[in-house]
Structure prediction request, 260 residues.
Amino acid sequence: TQLAFQQLLGGDAQTAVDSLRGALEIDPAFSRAELLLIFAHLHKGNWDAAISVGQALLTKQPENPLAHNVLGVAFERKGDAQAARALFVRALELHPSYYAAAFNLARLDAAAGDIDRAAQGYRAVLNGMPGHEEAALRLARIVESRAGAADAERLLLAVREHNKGALRVRLILAESYLRTGRLDEASTLMGEALALAPTLAGVRLLDARIRDAGGDIRGAQRVLQELVRDHPGEARYRLYLSDAQLRLGDLSAARRTVEA
Prediction:
């Protein structure tokens, strides 16, 4: 199943499905292979196949909260929110601190328009898993709309401390600090984001914008030149670069950048 998991992560869902079916033929009781097979079907968009495997697993392991949760995800993807909710609730009954199911239930509440209940669910997840990035991001949007940006910022900063790999939290905070002129804080967060994802184009673009806002136009130009080189078909990178070149007084370079 480790090979199949690697295949799934690599985007080769069909090969993963074939590998997992082989594992189940060797040992039909191997529930881990069934769970990964459900994930593979979900990845491919085969909702009915995922449900079929999940129901078979649940028949064999009716007290398995993970099986309930994964089957709930399959029903949710198919559009059956009622069946999904029942499965998430049952998963939590079997394992009250199963935060994956709690998060999924909160998502359903938000989709149904019950924002108070969704917020309560996201808070419960964060109480048990203070570094849960997605729960924090979803709750922060609710908090910002109700209590203001400062409360949302405190929430995201707490997750930043607990989750050293929370890239999106760092990018959102850095973007917010850039908009409000808190450039030292933006630069600190940018350094953390670059350490996590140094080659990600969106991270590099934000780095260039923060450098530019702080007066390091040449540093911004250098980053933008790398982005244009790596993504020659992306027009917005050329626009950012040509603007920096113009402000550095290099009109001919700006013209070449736009016309290339």
